[in-house]
Amino acid sequence: MRKNIVAGNWKMNKSFGEAEALICDILDGLDKIEEPLADVVICPPAVYLEMGMDLVRETPVCVGAQNMSQFASGAYTGEISASMLQSMEVQYCLIGHSERRQYFSETDAQLAGKVDIALANQVWPIFCCGEALAEREAGNHFNVVKSQIENSLFHLSPKQFTDIVIAYEPIWAIGTGVTASSDQAQEMHQFIRGFINEKYGKEVADETSILYGGSCNAKNAKELFAKPDIDGGLIGGASLVAEDFLTIIKSF
Ligand code: PGA
Fold it and tell me: How far is C-alpha 35 from the geometric centre of its chain's CA atoms?
């Protein structure tokens, strides 16, 4: 279902104590917001998921993992399965973040497998896509994003697709302080919704939440979220500071 979502991707940051304090500060801040206009998802490192789940219980905040295996179970040392996430009631998982694609060589086909196994275990994928700077400069950004989504998501049934959240994150904007302009982001989001419409129809396209990520911060979130096809953000750096993350949540 289309909803406004602000998700914090903490990446590989924070000690246990710092993570605990940050979640508590976010929860305290949310308590003071009368009616948050966005669903909030916190994606801490995997070793803190259990602590995170304990802290958010009985609050509207959701917890997500940053990655999971494409395999169901067994001899895959170091991996975390979708069924483990489900057994801990973790609701979301980032799939296909550009850092996973770049540093861990994750392919579209692998990501399709992760999406399938996440959905089979009622874990909602936040599927990340986005082009590199050279691809944008070559005018190829629409094709790149379209093929990432087609290759990893378009085997899904319309019903399955309604459980997908998409995060458009241009790689050149991630962690660089150079955000896409709200017009650039809107243009891509509209394009994404357009080809979801072509494949799955208007109802599914209108119901899909499409988040923007890439140097989204307390200063620029309002302008980005005001665009008709931007349904929230996937926030890296600014999600590590409670005050900034809360300001972003209040930016609708
Ligand atoms: P950033 O990261 O907000 O630090 O640019 C976003 C992300 O990688 O999800």
Answer: 22
